[in-house]
Specification:
The structure holds two protein chains of two kinds. By secondary structure, chain A is mostly beta strands. In chain A, 8% of the residues lie in helices and 45% in strands. Chain A has two helices and 26 strands. Chain B is mostly beta strands. Helices cover 4% and strands 60% of the residues of chain B. The chains are: A mainly beta, B mainly beta. The interface between A and B is large, with 34 and 41 residues.
Chain lengths: 356, 595
């Protein structure tokens, strides 16, 4: 009896300590605190993109978590998702002009907390968090009538007021962004005609430099040695992000019918994965940042993917498969050695992953 | 052809839909499904579970599907553009030719009666939409043997779609405007042996999506010039035709248009024979002939700036009335296309009058036939994505049915119709996303189903009542596994095609007043091929009240209509909401000479 009482007291005491710890340093609560968010682009004309959620230890994903939580769908194609502080930022591209938006949710609960639409947001492409209260969103703007690209912009979002506080003009078709110290490197979409990497200072929200390339630059990330990798026209260029000097370059392939995309960095920032394809078929490769060439004879996977990312927590490679735009896609998980873990059914056209 | 189900839309219904679109008429009176992108916007057909490429649309016997797309946008065809409308169910490729895989929509002009008739009408609708029509018909005797008659009709429709509530359930109704103009001209010269007729139908349909958004607005303008000359003499028929379809498309700035022009020059000759077999009254009728069409197309995104091709068809159609009860028909058609030949398409049909004594009548029908679809010009010639060696789709359709009539007494009469079909379509083309959207003959589809129609009429002295119910069960699915992920879609109902559809039209009439109630019921539809997404079932109801004022020389008809009475929420094919309840009022005035 006494023993039992002691046990009860101990448990109570531990709980009390845990509770008090909780009080002083509250861990975030919610269904979506930890896990993998799959960005399913959807079929453009049907405006049916969504975000699936996958707990790392499971192999069944919850589809369209925004609808589950908020009772209505996002109504557009999904272009990106990231988290800044407690804010989840979703990029929604509707097939109708003027209906694109940035939807802001509570990152832990996925409840909608606000939305920013036209004219601040038009053809949003990618999002990057700048600290916990600011985000940059690349926007193509409305394409010209002959389908060419106008000068695009980065919309600076203040997450406290949920407003676009500034539009920073970039090159044509701004797309991927890489954050490094107080700088954001903004690349261009491969078919946009833009050939300049725009550097924006995140304190002043102003362009400080524009670095020209022979083809549309696609910034990949900062490696273990603090160097920025940029792909431009089947060439991998290592750039010093402080001096902007192009230090070295690797030709991926001389086959101009192919294009390289879906670059992803390993958690140790020493390996870069990418897909090389001619749209019909392709392969997925990896190379080390110290390599002088990409070994095309030994692909990581003998197939192409519509999305590729590496989970920084577990190091698993997540690859998106799009069988068609009228059926669910799959997220295939690989280990770093290329062995298959499993395949998880997700939404239509998985093109990106966010790990939390 | 015997054994096939043909539904002729009666003139009262055509009159009632005079200011509306053909898609409205068909979806409320037949089991034909339309995939609509919004009011006045693209409306494509799904007939008996097939694709929008599988319905032939014929104007006075001539296929008017756009050859680039291989389909018709039914939003561009107002009921004001034709006099008669029939729906031919199932494959009738041996008679019609390409595209008649799921069914055919037959539009035709009728020869005006003697005298002069002038009509003018206007419909005013909610959302600042309106349509104006004017028609002149005449018929006169030129001399002791020749008659001359004709019709000139013009229509002008404006859909501004200014919704008072631009949102429904929190979703924006996609803004659009549609301006539609048309001119119809028919001329007939005839005597007891010869008939020469000329037919012209010019249409101009301009759709703008998001008109207020100057950078993002999107304009699609389809202009069609359709002309035909027909000559008939003692069993011979010769027809020449020219159709030009122009599609202009632009986003934002309209100064440079994406311009596509396709011309079709056609000639067709046909000879009809008739023989009596023995003395039993048995007759054999045979129609034999050929058709030749030259295509010339200029589309910016095609592999060559100007592409021409020739298509020919030879056919023999026979009808054998063996006894007064049994009719058998056998048809053969071979089409020839530049570069390759579609399959030989025979068909066989029969009709048997099981009971033909009043008050009952029962007729049994059955047919089997092959069908084909010549690939569209887009599928063959689109730069990089098209495939000049794409094979024609080919199908095999089987169906059986029964038609029954029962006249209870002078007041009540009943009709019923039941048909079951099985339609197998192979080499179904697919713009394969895993092959950079190149077109391939990947799919095999089986569409099967049943259609039921039940009608009742009650005619008292001043009162008239009627009800017509249509129900269709459509089960249609892709059956061929062409890649590892096709297993997620094989055997599942094709997207956007409801398993159950039905419509009910009921009216009550007292003297000159008629109240009509139209119901349309559509079951749940999957919006993706693997059934991961769907839209719910819905029911739409319209109410129409009509009256008319008749004098020997003059007639006025007034119609008031409430669309979507219950304000049902339903969606377009791309997920946007359709408008809620709306109203329309129309007045038609006509004056005519009396003989």
């Amino acid at each position: 009896m006494k023993k039992q009482l002691t046990r009860i007291l101990t448990v109570t005491l531990i709980s009390a300590i845990a509770w008090s710890c909780n009080q002083s340093d509250p861990a975030p609560k919610g269904t979506y605190v930890q896990g993998v968010f799959v960005i399913n682009e959807g079929n453009f004309s049907q405006n049916n993109g969504n975000i699936s959620f996958l707990a790392r230890e499971k192999n069944i994903a919850d589809s369209d978590i925004f609808s589950i939580v908020n009772g209505s769908s996002l109504k557009g194609g999904m272009q990106g998702y990231t988290v800044a502080g407690d804010h989840g930022i979703i990029l929604v591209d509707n097939s109708d002009p003027g209906l694109d938006k940035v939807e802001i949710v509570d990152a832990n609960l996925f409840t909608s907390t606000g939305s920013i639409g036209a004219p601040d947001v038009e053809n949003p492409r990618e999002v990057v968090a700048i600290g916990s209260n600011k985000a940059y969103v690349t926007n193509w703007g409305t394409l010209n009538s002959n389908s060419t690209y106008p000068t695009g912009y980065v919309a600076v979002i203040d997450l406290a007021t949920k407003k676009v506080i500034k539009k920073i003009d970039t090159d044509k078709g701004p797309e991927n962004m890489v954050l490094y110290n107080e700088k954001v490197f903004v690349g261009d979409y491969a078919y946009s005609g833009g050939k300049n990497l725009t550097v924006i200072n995140t304190a002043s929200d102003a362009v400080t430099r524009s670095i020209s390339f022979s083809a549309a630059p696609n910034p990949i990330g900062i490696d273990a040695n603090g160097k920025l990798w940029v792909e431009a026209g089947l060439e991998l260029i290592r750039l010093n992000p402080d001096t902007y000097e192009k230090e070295s370059s690797i030709k991926i392939s001389t086959d101009v019918s192919k294009s390289a995309g879906n670059f992803a960095m390993s958690p140790d920032l020493r390996t870069i994965y990418f897909v090389l394809s001619d749209f019909t078929r392709g392969e997925t490769y990896k190379f080390q940042i110290t390599d002088t060439a990409v070994n095309l004879a030994a692909p990581f996977a003998k197939r192409a993917f519509t999305g590729l990312a590496v989970d920084p927590r577990q190091g698993l490679i997540y690859a998106g498969v799009t069988p068609s735009y009228t059926q669910s896609g799959y997220a295939i998980r690989y280990r770093a050695d290329g062995t298959l873990v499993d395949s998880v059914k997700v939404g239509i056209a998985p093109t990106g992953f966010y790990f939390r | 052809m015997s054994g096939l189900k043909v539904q002729k839309i009666d003139s009262v219904t055509i009159e009632q839909f005079r200011f509306r679109n053909i898609a409205d008429l068909l979806s409320l009176n037949t089991p034909v499904i339309f995939k609509n992108y919004g009011p006045g916007q693209l409306s494509t057909v799904a007939f008996r579970g097939t694709s929008s490429n599988h319905t032939a649309v014929l104007w006075n016997g001539l296929n008017i599907n756009l050859p680039t797309l291989g389909q018709t946008d039914f939003s561009t065809i107002p009921v004001a553009g034709f006099d008669q409308l029939s729906v031919q169910y199932g494959s009738s490729a041996s008679i019609v030719g390409t595209d008649a895989v799921g069914g055919s929509i037959l539009l035709s002009s009728s020869k005006p009666e003697a005298g002069l008739q002038v009509m003018i009408g206007r419909q005013q609708e909610s959302f600042r939409n309106s349509q104006t029509q004017a028609t002149i018909k005449f018929g006169t005797r030129l001399n002791s043997t020749w008659n001359f008659s004709g019709k000139t009709a013009a229509y002008d429709g404006n859909m501004n779609n200014r919704y008072r509530h631009p949102e429904r359930n929190g979703d924006a109704i996609s803004p659009s405007t549609t301006f539609q103009k048309g001119l119809v001209q028919d001329l007939f010269f005839s005597n007891n042996k010869h008939e020469l007729s000329a037919h012209v139908w010019l249409t101009d349909n301009k759709l703008t999506n998001n008109p207020e958004n100057l950078a993002g607005r999107q304009m699609t303008r389809i202009k069609s010039y359709r002309t035909m000359l027909r000559y008939e003499i003692e069993g011979w028929t010769v027809r020449t035709s020219w159709i030009r379809d122009i599609i202009d498309y632009a986003i934002g700035d309209y100064s440079t248009l994406d311009h596509a022009v396709t011309d079709r020059y056609g000639i067709r000759g046909e000879r009809t024979f008739e023989w009596k077999v023995g003395k039993s009254g048995s007759t054999i009728q045979m129609q034999t002939g050929g058709e030749f069409t030259h295509y010339k197309t200029q589309v910016e995104n095609y592999e060559r700036p100007v592409i021409t091709e020739n298509r020919g068809d030879f056919f023999i159609l026979t009808r054998w009335q063996t006894t007064s009860r049994l009719l058998i028909s056998a048809n053969l058609r071979q089409a020839l296309v530049t570069g390759y030949n579609p399959p030989f398409t025979p068909s066989l049909g029969a009709e048997y009058r099981l009971i033909q004594n009043l008050p009952y009548s029962i007729k049994l029908k059955g047919s089997v036939g092959r069908s084909y679809r010549v690939p569209t010009l887009n599928e063959r010639y689109w730069k990089d994505l098209g495939n000049p060696n794409i094979k024609p789709e080919n199908g095999f359709n089987k169906e059986a049915g029964a038609e029954a009539g029962y006249v209870l007494n002078k007041i009540h009469s009943f009709t019923a119709n039941l048909t079951a079909y099985h339609n197998w379509i192979d080499n179904w083309t697919y713009w394969n996303p895993t092959n950079n959207f190149r077109v391939e003959n990947l799919q095999m589809v089986i569409a099967r189903g049943a259609e039921m129609q039940f009608g009742w009429k009650g005619n008292w002295e001043y009162w008239k009542f009627a009800g017509m119910l249509n129900y269709a069960l459509t089960s249609t699915s892709q059956e061929k596994t062409f890649d590892a992920y096709a297993s997620d879609i094989v055997g599942k109902q094709l997207p956007h095609i409801p398993l159950h559809t039905g419509n009910v039209t009921m009216f009550m009439q007292y003297k000159n007043f008629r109240l009509t109630n139209q119901l349309q019921i559509i079951s749940k539809r999957y919006t993706t091929a693997d059934h991961s997404q769907s839209v719910p079932a819905y029911m739409l109801e319209n109410l129409i009240i009509e009256t008319n004022f008749n004098r020997p020389h003059f007639r006025a008809s007034l119609q008031g209509r409430v669309n979507n009475v219950s304000n049902t929420f339903y969606q377009t094919i791309n997920g946007n909401p359709m408008p809620g309840r709306s109203f329309a009022i129309s007045l038609l005035l006509s004056a005519k000479t009396i003989r």
